[in-house]
Amino acid sequence: MTITISLAGQTALVTGAGAGIGRAIAVRLAQAGANVAVTDIVATAAHETSELVRAEGREGLALVGDMTDPRRVDDMVEETVRHFGALNIGVNNVGMLGKHGAAPYLDWSSQAMADVVAGNLLATMYSCQAEAAAMIPAGRGGVIVNVSSGETTRPAVQLAPYGAAKAGINHLTQTLAIELAPHRIRVNAAAPGTTLTQKVAEAFSAEHRAALQASIPLDGEFSAPEDLADLVLLLASDLAAHTTGQFLLSDKGAFLSRSRPAPTTH
Ligand SMILES: NC(=O)c1ccc[n+]([C@@H]2O[C@H](COP(=O)([O-])OP(=O)(O)OC[C@H]3O[C@@H](n4cnc5c(N)ncnc54)[C@H](O)[C@@H]3O)[C@@H](O)[C@H]2O)c1
């Protein structure tokens, strides 16, 4: 018996797919046969990823906008359905540590807190709502995958607003899994191991990077964007047909490791 994962004939939308992990997810879903709408706040980045989708022989659609703006989110999902005729898979990858990075809780300004909550939790809430609203009338079910963080598995020291926002995504995922189950829409959360995308690499000192790497149990290597893309593909596929409301890490055991340093050492 040969098992293949195919998303042929399906349409996916990946948010924040102009770089890093989101880009790898968009390309992986295209490699599995899906047409992919790519959203990003940076126009050139969205168009570049859309070209990569086309290079895989699928149709790509670049959508430029801020996922923290609920009207724009609704518009982008509607544009996807207008263009492709359906939306089957929504991957809500937009997220950020915030430009202030790690800081003791008392040093977080109210604006920095609001930015991090909006850029992680609210963006995901708006996307989930718009995607479900597009999937339900079509009556064909669907899949939503929300990108979360391993920081939700332990206290996110000096990253409290980020940890709380991502933990909110996990709770949202569980709740929507139940609310949307009657419509055959599965909702799961997936979190990467530390992945040295540009912004993450810039945020780490050499010492913190070395300590983090040394604490990765499986092979002592950081994750690549494609590693989370593989988990998202699995969750999007029928191989996960009975999996909903779950939070899954692709981190080589890093967050279970006792030697993993806290973000305070950034
Ligand atoms: N890289 C890691 O180690 C790591 C670890 C845990 C969780 N994550 C999560 O994975 C996801 C992707 O992380 P990454 O490292 O690839 O990020 P990244 O910064 O490399 O890429 C994020 C992309 O999203 C876009 N974006 C950001 N805010 C946006 C908004 N409001 N509207 C539209 N587009 C927006 C950016 O322009 C960028 O292209 C995030 O949710 C992040 O929190 C990453």
UniProtKB/TrEMBL annotation:
> Domain of life, per the record?
Bacteria
Question: What Pfam families does this protein map onto?
Answer: adh_short_C2
Establish whether keyword S-adenosyl-L-methionine is in the entry: no
Family annotation (CDD domains): SDR_c
GO MF terms here are:
oxidoreductase activity, acting on the CH-OH group of donors, NAD or NADP as acceptor
Q: Which UniProt keywords apply?
A: Oxidoreductase
Name the family the entry cites: Belongs to the short-chain dehydrogenases/reductases (SDR) family.
Q: What name appears for this protein in its UniProt entry?
A: SDR family oxidoreductase
